[in-house]
Write a structure and sequence with these properties.
This protein is 33% helix and 23% strand. α1 (17-29) packs parallel to α2 and α4 packs across α7. It contains 13 helices and 21 strands. By secondary structure, it is of the alpha/beta class. β6 and β7 form a beta hairpin. Bound molecules: cytidine-5'-triphosphate. Cytidine-5'-triphosphate binds next to α11 and β16.
């Protein structure tokens, strides 16, 4: 979906430059055209050949290169960029950008561009904490630059502190978020629920389910990449946080209900991919239940139906985890919960449903028509769901 978009990846002289090779690779794999611009200091750490081999494009290093693809390089690069990313961005690079110094190709490109600029700082903790660096960043932020990171951890010097280049997944998330701003869901508020809820029995035990959260996270990621403002109401999962997405972590069905009702107050769309517990223990035992009695009965009470409780002018998409007579049962759910679309999952199939990366689903719309999709990656299923959401929004 990002085919034809141009990224300028600026690389400056930090020990973290090796991580930029992975960023260049991931962006290229997504179909983006990546022009790497290296500073002289960056070339002390790695050679342009690394990036040229990854991006299959010439690497820009010298402002005064006569025979180059770009006529007046910094202007040409600056104009065609949809986003400029500097990762890693050293304290020196940040200072130059803040001062408007354009003594290298990368800095003159940034000065000339109208594209959004993302900086991922990486430096020693002392340099990071220095008020000069902080003032420079404040200035750049006020000019619309997006600063991502740095992270906390072990630094090349051996010290532990702030200054590590933030994880690549986070940098990539921000890049996709920025590139998606003008997508077909631009400015739409979408609430996605994901993962399974946990209903406490006592201090250490709970009733849970096998949901991994992968489907919901894939929907949130895809919606973000298409320009939506995404709120992700998530039960506990082992998945990494999504950058550019507003997360509301919850544990129980009741907490999920509160979070979804709050988040949907001003939203255009709700997609409930979460596996919400239908029953919870009537009371939560104090401390830890002792292993004494031969039998133990838990009294369970019904939780509220979150999807049914969300009312108003909002598009509602539900999931139906089914076995057996799937279509009839899912159609019943669609009507009962007043949904615009229901996504039916066969939970008995090995390659779809819980904790897999793929899914085989059937869509049922308000007209009762069923559309069966082939086996796909969950991210592809997510985009198919969003295609239907775009059509539903257009038909409103
Ligand atoms: N759902 C919900 N609140 C609940 C239970 C389910 O909002 N308390 C949502 C799910 O997120 C899903 C849809 O309703 O989008 C259908 O969930 P599913 O578990 O398939 O159906 P149930 O309504 O729970 O019915 P049953 O378990 O009897 O099949």
């Amino acid at each position: 979906m990002f085919k034809g978009k141009n990224v300028v990846l600026g690389v400056t002289g930090s020990i973290a430059v090796y991580k930029a090779a992975d960023i260049a690779s991931k962006l290229t794999q997504r179909g983006l055209c990546v022009d790497v611009v290296m500073t002289k200091a960056a070339m002390q750490f790695v050679t342009p050949l690394t990036f040229r081999s990854i991006t299959h494009r010439p690497v820009v290093t010298d402002m005064f290169e006569p025979a180059s693809e770009f006529s007046v390089e910094h202007v040409a690069l600056a104009e065609r960029a949809d986003v400029v990313v500097i990762a890693p961005a050293t304290a020196d690079a940040i200072a130059k950008l803040a001062a408007g110094i354009a003594d290298e190709m990368l800095f003159s490109t940034v000065l000339a561009t109208r594209a959004p600029v993302i900086l991922a700082p990486a430096m020693d903790v002392g340099m990071w904490q220095n008020s000069i660096t902080q003032e420079n960043l404040t200035k750049l932020r006020s000019r619309g630059f997006t600063i991502v990171g740095p992270g906390y951890g072990r630094l090349a010097s051996g010290l532990v502190g702030m200054g590590r280049l933030i994880e690549n997944e986070e940098i990539l998330g921000i890049i996709y978020h920025v590139l998606g701003r003008k997508g077909d869901l631009a400015e739409k508020q979408i609430v996605v629920s994901a993962g399974g809820t946990q209903e406490p029995i006592d201090l250490v035990r709970y009733i849970g389910n096998r949901s991994s959260g992968k489907m919901g996270y894939a929907i949130a990621e895809a919606a973000r990449d298409r320009g939506a403002v995404v709120t992700l109401v998530t039960g506990p999962t082992a998945l990494p946080a999504l950058s550019g997405v507003d997360a509301m972590p919850v544990q129980t069905a009741e907490q999920m209900r509160d979070a979804v009702l709050k988040a949907t107050a001003a939203a255009d769309v709700l997609i409930m991919a979460a596996a919400v517990a239908d029953y919870r223990p009537a009371t939560v035992a104090e401390g830890k239940i002792k292993r004494e009695a031969d039998t133990l009965n838990l009294e369970l009470v019904k939780t509220s139906d979150i999807l049914a409780d969300v009312k108003g002018d909002i598009i509602k998409v539900g999931f139906a985890a089914e076995s057996g007579d799937m279509i009839a049962r899912a159609t019943e759910k669609l009507k009962k919960k007043q949904l615009d679309l229901i996504v039916v999952n066969d939970i008995t199939a090995k390659d779809s449903g819980f904790d897999t990366d793929t899914n085989r689903v059937t869509f049922i719309g308000r007209d009762g028509k069923a559309e069966q999709l082939p086996l796909m990656l969950k991210l592809e299923v997510a985009h198919k769901i969003l295609d239907r959401v775009v059509a539903l929004l257009a038909g409103k």
